[in-house]
Amino acid sequence: MINVKEGLIIIGGAEDKKGDKQILREVCEHIEKENQLLVIVTVATEKPIEVGNEYTDIFHSMGVKNVSVLDVENREDAMRTENIELIEKASLIFFTGGDQLRITSILGGTQLYSNMRRKYKEDCVFVGTSAGASVMSDVMIVKGMDDESPKKCTLKMAPGLGLIYGVIIDQHFAQRGRVGRLLVGVAENPEVLGIGIDEDTSIIVNKQNILRVIGSGAVYIIDGSNISDTNVSEQHQDNILSIFDVKMHVLKTGDKYDLTDRRPFV
Amino acid sequence: MINVKEGLIIIGGAEDKKGDKQILREVCEHIEKENQLLVIVTVATEKPIEVGNEYTDIFHSMGVKNVSVLDVENREDAMRTENIELIEKASLIFFTGGDQLRITSILGGTQLYSNMRRKYKEDCVFVGTSAGASVMSDVMIVKGMDDESPKKCTLKMAPGLGLIYGVIIDQHFAQRGRVGRLLVGVAENPEVLGIGIDEDTSIIVNKQNILRVIGSGAVYIIDGSNISDTNVSEQHQDNILSIFDVKMHVLKTGDKYDLTDRRPFV
User: Fold this and answer.
1) Does this model's pTM top 0.90?
2) B180/A218 Cβ within 8 A
3) CA distance B158 to chain A (A)
4) CA B250 – CA B179 distance, rounded (Å)
5) Do B174 and A251 touch (CB under 8 A)?
6) Can you tell me the distance from the alpha carbon of A99 to that of A215, in angstroms, rounded to the nearest whole number?
7) What CA–CA distance (Å, rounded) separates A265 from B245?
8) Does the beta carbon of A264 lie under 8 angstroms from any beta carbon of chain B?
9) Strand B139-144 and strand B155-159: pairing?
10) Is 0.85 exceeded by the ipTM?
């Protein structure tokens, strides 16, 4: 049985590709391996052939019969009929890592892009890892300092793909020391929930807005709704941010979180 | 006027030594430069002469007339009468960086150590940077993985000097991505408050248990008192920790925190 109620799989990068491949196996659970089409989107990376071949081999080896790579390196490619048609046939679309601004700057405003959003509503499953993870939300982090104190200048944001709303997703979270930059994002608008995902770790979001965690690392939920004071609007770019009363949850594999009620559960 | 009500200055390491030296200037505010003795304790480092000379030169250049280095490289040194006498004369004792376990394993259980604790109650000011910061609390972090998901095996703790109770202090906090390991420490006993201090950043604790922040980075308070669920006691060493409802504050220079009431203020 394929789980069509879970439409979004967001991976913190560096998912295991050689061991038990827990996360990629989970991805394969969301497609009928014999007859549905899995499309790998390599637009984020500057090594599309290498990355496309690597994932194609992995998914083939895991039993997925129909795997294609969407070959889009610039906006002209994004407008090609054959690419639009390929996406139309997909049952699962997998965004690789690279640079999230490549994804949005090349796909944004095209027919391909609006077809993708329609397909998401129609039960096509979307998966993204690393840059492909950040890009899933309506606002995404494009650049920020790693291993740094929270400062406004450490964070640059941009509009993302908009498959999930009201969250900012950061990846390679523990491994690159990114809590500072995600705190800045949340302080700037506590309406938005910060989600930090470690490497080889993933959240799977269902249509009821519940996420569950799988993988070998942790997922951090930064909830700013109770922030009692912050200087984020007053400070200069390179001043340190002060934020009082942030709520944080650390979730491990198997834990769940209700994005609507903002509550973790097991 | 010297501020004798602030007995403890805890620095997250890598304090500025060449620019405006904000933190070291603050240290000098806590001593009468003309006639009181500042003692540098290099026991944490394996380069005591180099480190001792560096700080001696800096404090001299900032106008402190009487600066001595406590020369303790092993337990035998710690028991020498001249070293005990030197500490007796000190008005400010400055612990350098290095390895916090060197500090406690060499000084612990000696007359020198118990005299230090008495001196702290008698208004001698204690300052510690890096390893010298961690060692100030009754329980200290001695080892943990940087840039890592929270796991029990990433954290080793040991008894510290015990000048401040009820907190665990971690240093080089943003720069080494240490939020994971401090979260583990807090989850293991939420009675204890986690304090993460960035490089070139310091907390100054007064006798009323209020801390204030100075420096160019941030200070992170991790308050586990509202933790609603954690698997910390059940999990194996290398499993990921799950922790729900942690409260976090990010403080910048000038912010204050009441350690008794567990409340930040400006």
Assistant:
1) no
2) yes
3) 24
4) 12
5) no
6) 23
7) 11
8) yes
9) antiparallel
10) no
